[in-house]
Each structure stands twice: as C-alpha cells, then as structure tokens.
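for the writeup, i need someone to sanity check this before i put it in the appendix. the sequnce is what the collaborator sent (i think, or maybe the updated version? ugh). structure was predicted straight from it, no edits. if anything looks off just tell me and ill rerun, i have time this weekend
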Amino acid sequence: MSQMDSQSSATLQSPSTYSDSSKTQSTRSLASSREEEDLTKDNSASPIDLECHIQAERITKILDEAIYKTKLAICLPIFVQEYRTLSSILKVEHMDDLTFIFEQYDNPLFSTSLLNVAAMEDIKAGDISLKNRLNPELGHLMYILNSYPQLRPKAEQLIAEIKEEHTPDNIHMRRKVPGLEYLLTLENFRDMMVKQMEMTAAEELEMKMHTRKLEASNGKLLEKIQEYTKCLKEENESFEKSMRIKSEMISKLEYELGILNRDADIFLKKKILDSDRQMVLATRSHLIKSEMLKEEEVESRSMYENLLKAHLIEEKNQRARRFKVETQLLSWLQKYDLEMGDKQLELDEFTDNYEDELKKCEELEKKLAEQDIEYIPLMEEREAEYQQELTEKMNRFMLEHAARVIQVAWREVLQNRAEKRRLKKLQKKMQAAAAKAAKK
C-alpha cells in the first residue's frame, strides 16, 4: 500500500510520460505548423521570441494533458462498467490494481489504509458522505489509465456522445454528467490562452484602444440618458398638473350631474303621476266602449242571420244558372268538333304557304348579311361619334354638379360654424349661471 501511495504521489507531482499523445488532431496540426515555421526562422528570430514560443508550447501541452485527464475522469464510471474493454487493453498487473482500487473505493470497510479506517469510524458515527469515501489510490488509477494511449479514442468518442446529448436541442433527453461543465470551461480556457498567445502586442494595444473608445461612447450615452430622464421627469410633472386640473373639472361636472339627476328624478315622479291618472281615465273609457261593443254585437248577429237567408236564396239561383251554362257549353263543343274537320284542311294549306314564305325569308336574310358587312362599320363609326358626344356632355354635367355640391357643402360648413359659436356662447352662459348659483 505504501508503494502504491508513493506511485500515486509521484504521478501527481511529475508530468505524464505520454503528454505528446494527449493533444487533439487540431493541436497536432498547429504544433507541426509552428515547428516548421521555427525551423525556417531559427536564424532570423530573436532568442526572446523563441523562448516565448517554447513557453507557449509548454503551456498548451500542460493544458492538453489536464483536459485529457478530466475526460478520463468523466469517462471513469463508464470504463468501470465496461470490464471487457479494459481487460483487453490493460495488462494483468494494472487490471489487478484497478480492481483493488475499485473495491477499495466502493467498499471502504474492507480496506486496511488509515484513511479508510477513519472513514469506517465516520460511518459508524453516522456520517456517510462522499468525501470520507475518497481514496488516495485514485491518482494512481488515473496514472494507469493515462499510460495507455489505446484508451484515448474510446474516451474521445464517449465525450463526443456526451456533448451531443448536452446540446440545447436535447434539453429533455439529456442526463446529468458531473464534471462536463468544468471540461467545457477548461477547453474554452485553453482556446482563449492559445488565441491570447498568438496575438501580437500591436493587436492587443489596438483592442485596448477600441475598448477605451467604447467606454468613452458609453459615458456620452449615459449623459444623454440622464438628460432624457430629466426631460421625462419634467414631462411627468406637467402631465400630473394637467391631470389634477382635469380631475377638478371632473368633480365639478359630477356635482352638476348630481343636480341634473335630482331634477330628472322629480320630473320622472311627475310623469309617473300623470301616467297613473291617464291609466284611470283609459280604464273608464274602455268600460264604456266595451258596453257599446256588446250592443253592436247583438245588432251584428241579427244582421248576419238576415244576410245568411239572402245568400242561401242567391246560391239556389246561381246553381240553376250554372246548369244552364253547362248545357250550352256541351252544345258548343259538339258544334266545334263538327267544324274542326273543315278547318283542318284550311290549316294544312296555311302551313304549306308558311314554309314557302320561310324559304323566301332565308334568302332575304342571306342578302341582308351581305349588306351588313358594309353597313356595320358605318354604324360603328356613328356610334363612336355618339359616345364621344355623350362623354363630353357627361363631363360638363359632372363639373356643374361638383360645383353645386361644393357650394352646398361650403354653406353647410358656414352654418355649422355659426351653430358652434352659438353653442359656445350658450355654454358660457350656463357656466356663469351655474357659478352664480354655486356662490349663492
């Protein structure tokens, strides 16, 4: 156990031997391009620039190692579940160490280290927190995993899948992964450091000047905002004053409305009394009319009986006349049947003559169609001239009508202005009378 503790402390203190393999493909391409530039410019570059370049490469290597180790730490729970993949890549000795560390981490009661003895005492006391279950052998575990570059593509693939799950589109489907935000911030910090180291002093100075200009423009904008706030306060105060005046006017008008409502109530009471009187008079007149109508009903019934007797007598006479008319119609129909045989011959002659006349008419229509070819264009010219005359007359009429409408409208405007002046004078008189009444 002491040997493993010493190995884990050594891994924490010393950089990894596989630091070159901890870079991504993009960082490798950048490093290769920079090395080519350095090889071509060894003679011309100054030692200070070369030293800065070397320090920048060292910083990027350290950051890449830290990023890869965080990725391994995030993927560690998944690697624990995938025992076959670890056993196929790792050696037997390292695999035994890993299983021992996993058992020690998962069940601290069976470990013999001093830290786990303290954890056992805390568990007996009732404190079962995660901090008491951490083991010092985790550093050694990270050293073992980092020493195998074959795990790198698997870890990169798992991290890529986790990042795809944590896109803003998959908010409902994603699961919580501890340490992912730390990894993202560390990668952003590494990109920012690379950009900052690639930036020249002139570019940095230019950025500072740009920020100073923005600060100056922000100061001017703040002054304008203060001026606008003052103007808004003044406008609000004037608006409040106008609202006070309007509220006073509203209170006065409400008082006048109360007086008018009282007068209206008195007037309505008078109207109700008058209507009651009229209802009493109407009921009396209705009773008198009902008696008169009853007398008229008796007289109308007697008249109705007399009319019925007269109508029955007339009905008998009408039936006798109807019988006579029907006999006459039968005799006329018999005569019609006899005469129709002679008339049919005449009708056949007339139809023959009609067909001859139709043939003559068709010939005449053909001649007229030939004449229409010359006649129609002449009539169209005449119709166009007639339409032109009509449009001129209509335009004249429209102008005269528009002039009359404008004159009438102007007279109405003058009348409306005069009426408004009269209404204003009446309102002033009413206000003066109300003011006098209020004073009294």
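The chain is about 85% helix and 0% strand. Residues 2-198 form one domain.
thx in advance!!
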